[in-house]
């Protein structure tokens, strides 16, 4: 029986930027839907409340002057600097406490897996992957994935793989470990030519002492389930097998969904479900099942995010949910009462087509195939792999 930890408490909803796309209702509705299917009551599942990360733990990634600024900014209406008090990162009462709690929740998840207490662990409220050592960015104050990874390195981890499937480049995590060969960061995202944060080109492959430790798949706008899965399977499994990680850490932003208002990929919840399945299988194959997951972005607050992350929770805690499962009436009523301008879905599927054709070099490549080959040419030789051999 797989042992799974869900780090959860309603206090995690306090990370609330106000009238803002990153609305904590997406997390509330996810947990309500997961509870409607009794996912947290499955055999082998533990639910644990988080404790806030300490300043010392935050300091594994963030500068002391930045942490001090996060604490001070809510009390100064005219505060400027460190990326705070902007439209992307407005300040709010209790900002430090709420942000430190999310970081602490991801630390709890990571430590439980690394210690062998749990096989898998998830913090749905986490995944704030844009925050930099001394700057808030992209709705993110403290970078909980980077903090948790740094903590595992301090505990003796030698090879950690981080796979980021958010529609935006996982720039903060890449920056934190760009010169560290112990961490392999892989990000699949919409091309930075079209989307924030403007980084994540295939040529970003790691610093002078860690060549090949950063991997970026820059996907063309309009990429659908079949093409996204084609790209994933053309890049991720081969690199993970070459790297042989001890633990897999994933950021599972739900914003590649076709209804997401802030980006232009075209995945369905079925494609996202297939991605979670693939990540689980890779963790089983390569890491003895050790898998740490977080949420991330996602702005189709009712239509997509709760279903995607409920599929993630189902995958973490045991058997996947049947995509044809009907959504309970009480959840639909809750969603429409909290977000009356939105229409709640009726089933756990979008009837997406997840049958993909495995990648091979094409004589007349599509834009997607050119993106795949650009990544493979940039990184695969640094791992001893042939960029033109689809078996690698």
TrEMBL record:
This is Acetoin utilization protein AcuC. Pathway: Ketone degradation; acetoin degradation. Belongs to the histone deacetylase family. Keywords: Acetoin catabolism. It comes from the Bacteria. CDD domains: HDAC_AcuC_like. It comes from Hamadaea flava. Residues 20-315 form the Histone deacetylase domain.
């Amino acid at each position: 029986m797989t042992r799974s930890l869900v780090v959860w408490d309603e206090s995690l909803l306090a990370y609330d930027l106000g009238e803002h796309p990153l609305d904590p209702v997406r997390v509330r509705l996810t947990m309500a839907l997961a509870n409607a299917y009794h996912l947290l009551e499955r055999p082998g599942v533990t639910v644990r409340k988080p404790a806030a990360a300490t300043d010392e733990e935050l300091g594994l990634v963030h500068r002391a002057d930045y942490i001090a600024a996060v604490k001070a900014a809510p009390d100064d209406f005219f505060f400027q600097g460190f990326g705070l008090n902007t439209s992307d990162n407005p300040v709010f009462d209790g900002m430090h406490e709420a942000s430190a709690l999310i970081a602490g929740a991801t630390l709890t998840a990571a430590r439980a897996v690394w210690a062998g207490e749990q096989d898998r662990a998830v913090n749905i409220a986490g995944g704030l992957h844009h925050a930099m050592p001394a700057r808030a960015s992209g709705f993110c104050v403290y970078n909980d994935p980077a903090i948790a990874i740094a903590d595992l390195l301090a505990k003796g981890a030698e090879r950690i793989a981080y796979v980021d499937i958010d529609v935006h480049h996982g720039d903060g995590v890449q920056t934190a470990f760009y010169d560290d060969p112990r961490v392999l960061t892989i990000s699949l995202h919409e091309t930075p030519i079209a989307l924030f944060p403007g980084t994540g080109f295939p040529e970003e492959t790691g610093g002078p002492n860690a060549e090949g430790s950063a991997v970026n798949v820059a996907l063309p706008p309009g990429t659908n389930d079949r093409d996204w899965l084609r790209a994933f399977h053309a890049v991720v499994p081969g690199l993970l097998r070459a790297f042989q990680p001890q633990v897999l850490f994933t950021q599972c932003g739900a914003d590649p969904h076709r209804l997401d208002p802030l980006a232009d990929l075209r995945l369905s919840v079925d494609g996202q479900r297939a991605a979670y399945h693939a990540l689980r299988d890779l963790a089983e194959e390569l890491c003895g099942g050790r898998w740490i997951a977080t949420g991330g972005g996602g702005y189709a607050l009712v239509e997509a995010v709760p279903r995607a992350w409920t599929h993630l929770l189902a995958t973490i805690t045991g058997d996947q949910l049947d995509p044809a499962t009907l959504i309970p009436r009480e959840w639909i009523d809750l969603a429409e009462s909290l977000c009356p301008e939105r229409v709640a879905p009726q089933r756990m599927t979008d009837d997406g087509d997840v049958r993909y054709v495995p990648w091979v070099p094409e004589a007349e490549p599509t834009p997607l195939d050119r993106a795949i080959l650009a990544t493979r040419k940039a990184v695969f030789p640094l791992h001893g792999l042939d960029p033109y051999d689809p078996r690698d």
